[in-house]
Amino acid sequence: MPRGNSFTFLRLAFALVVVFAHSFVLGGFGEDPVARFSGGQVNAGSVAVMCFFIVSGFLITGSAVRQPSIFQFALNRVARIAPGFWAVQLLTVFALAPAITLARYGDRLGYWDSIVVGPYSAIDYLILNADFRILQYPITNLFLHNPGGGAVNGSLWSLAPEVTCYLYLGALTVVGGLRWKYTAPILFAIGYIFHNAAMHQPELGVRVAQVLENGWIYGTHLPLFRSVFLAFLAGMTCYQFRDALRWRGWLVAVALLALAVACRTGTLEFVWPFTLPYLVLFLAHRLPFEKVEQWGDYSYGIYIYAFPIQQCLALNGVQRFGFVAFFTASTVLAVLAGMASWFALERPVLNWTRTLSKRFRSRAEPPEVACQMELLPEKN
């Protein structure tokens, strides 16, 4: 993959597709076009999340291979995902939930009461979801009567499998598993067989999922969780065979045709793991939007803030103005939140991480090696 690529643009596009898909659900507008076209096999949001994981598997495998130590790999991964997650959780618990509760019951409740009241209190939400596994989705009855249900931030479910992928990729790096180019393809093949076997024998999926939970791999009894793990492994495989990949328009046409046929015939789970990764990486390779990276990467902030923003819009009845108005308001506010998250938190933390990594390298390496490392471009 050349240095000039459109990965940042694609991540931004995928985040906006998630906002688009959630606008149908949270605004009460029915199924999105992808769900209708595929006969309910997937929706636009789940496809976008799988594309996120394909990109992540490709890029983070490259990061793991390039990093001079597991410490720096772990530091980069924590810096990329943890600050944003904790910021949205703290804002949700100590700002959003009290604001809505006090607006409703301020004559009977104080600020602290608004945080601890109810069987699904805000403080319980914070504690139960602290390790990225989202075990509590609602907070009291904040959004109970919304068209899309009472979840405060349904988008956060994907962070737990993302963190799991980071942990196991780091472990593979430590034991040298990435030095053998067939590591990822074998893991992908195992994941593909398990996923499709579990689709047809759910009880098998449940039994295997119970075993995997002993290794902190959660949620694989659910098709969507298996899909994102498989997407990450597909991205890893593409990275290990990146020199063999060829970008051909006719292959894109074949892949799109195969996906369309699979959507109409109910065979999407058999087809997408071999076609969707190629399409995503083709776009990253061929789209001329590499300069988007200079603006900043707002995708993570958009992704983690859009859902509660859309729930608040639904709570205030914005959906009554129609889908276009609801989606437009959701997009504008989510992009503003993503930009604020990037400039106020994510970018400063990443800059601090790079500075810390350079200091660590300068102490660990001989002076002449450290100087050479400084000349190399930093990529996370």
Write the layout of secondary structure elements.
Elements: H1 7-26, H2 33-37, H3 44-66, H4 70-105, H5 111-116, H6 122-128, H7 159-175, H8 183-200, H9 202-212, H10 223-240, H11 249-265, H12 268-286, H13 299-315, H14 323-364, H15 367-374
Helix pairs in contact: 1-3, 1-13, 1-14, 3-7, 3-10, 4-6, 4-7, 4-13, 4-14, 8-9, 8-10, 10-12, 11-12, 13-14, 14-15
Characterize the largest beta sheet: strand count, sense, and whether it forms a barrel. none
Round the Cα radius of gyration to an integer and report it: 22 Å
Low-pLDDT parts are 369-380
What portion of residues is helical? 55-70%
Overall pLDDT score? 93
Instruction: Bin the strand percentage.
Output: under 5%
- What is the structural class? mainly alpha
Q: How many structural domains can be distinguished in the coordinates?
A: 1
Instruction: Tell me the number of strands.
Output: 0
Tell me the overall shape: globular
Spell the H/E element sequence: HHHHHHHHHHHHHHH
What would your notes on this structure say?
- It is a single chain.
- The chain has 380 residues and is an all-alpha fold.
- The protein has one domain.
- It is built from 15 helices and no strands.
- It has helices at residues 7-26, 33-37, 44-66, 70-105, 111-116, 122-128, 159-175, 183-200, 202-212, 223-240, 249-265, 268-286, 299-315, 323-364, 367-374.
- Helix 4 packs antiparallel against helix 6 (122-128) and helix 8 (183-200) runs antiparallel to helix 10.
- The two termini are 15 Å apart.
- The relative contact order is 0.16.
- Mean pLDDT is 93; it is low at 369-380.
